[in-house]
Amino acid sequence: MIITSHMVLLNYPRTGSTWARGVLRRLHGVEGRTLAQRLAGTRLGWRGFHELTLPIDRTTTALREGRRSQHGSYRQIPSWAANRPVVSVGRDPLVHLESAYHHGFWRDHPAAPLPEVREALPAFPDLDLPGYVEYLERFALPDVLQGAEPRAAVGVQTAQFLRFFHPQPQETLATLTDEDLDGEALVAALPRVRFLRTERLQQDLARLLAEQGYDPSAVEQAMAQSDRNASARRRVEGPHLAAAQIGRAHV
Asked: What is the pTM of this model?
């Protein structure tokens, strides 16, 4: 999570938000500084820039292992920044799923004890795409639900989205119905978030930063110097992300 004088940037995983975060770090002169300098700058609000590394509270395994990351959720926005506009990055769900598959974090951090996963999926972690989708449904979804038992046919990406952006995700997931997903109340309960789009992230971010008064030439330079966190491509067996393969795991 990054908080500037103008906004809160929530870094939704596998959308390009890490690149956007790098652009802001360069604009505020944080990139290239020592860890001590960065921590001091964060505590002091150095140049109106706060970069927060927070506990991951979105899965049972992350909570149990005490993981922390820059991917702070909406509920973790500190009270002193609660009135600032919230920005994040959105991505097509199927492409988002493919990116997570290729990124491969799940291979080294299974969502259940390894013997249990391998009993159900003996090839783990060498899964093809359909095998990965089965892994998501069997293990990742319960890990995200954290004991909640929704009455809706909810998939892992919907559960992840609600964990990240809903002010009361546990209560919502525990009572979620298909009617909730089809109706307007669930959307109305979500906070106002400005979503940049992954497929046009450079243009959307440049427009946002121009609105906030950043120098366009400095923005252009920061964008050129920031590395993209792209996933290494792996061979995918079968049709490319056919909807029939993905099943309910993408929604």
From this structure: 0.84
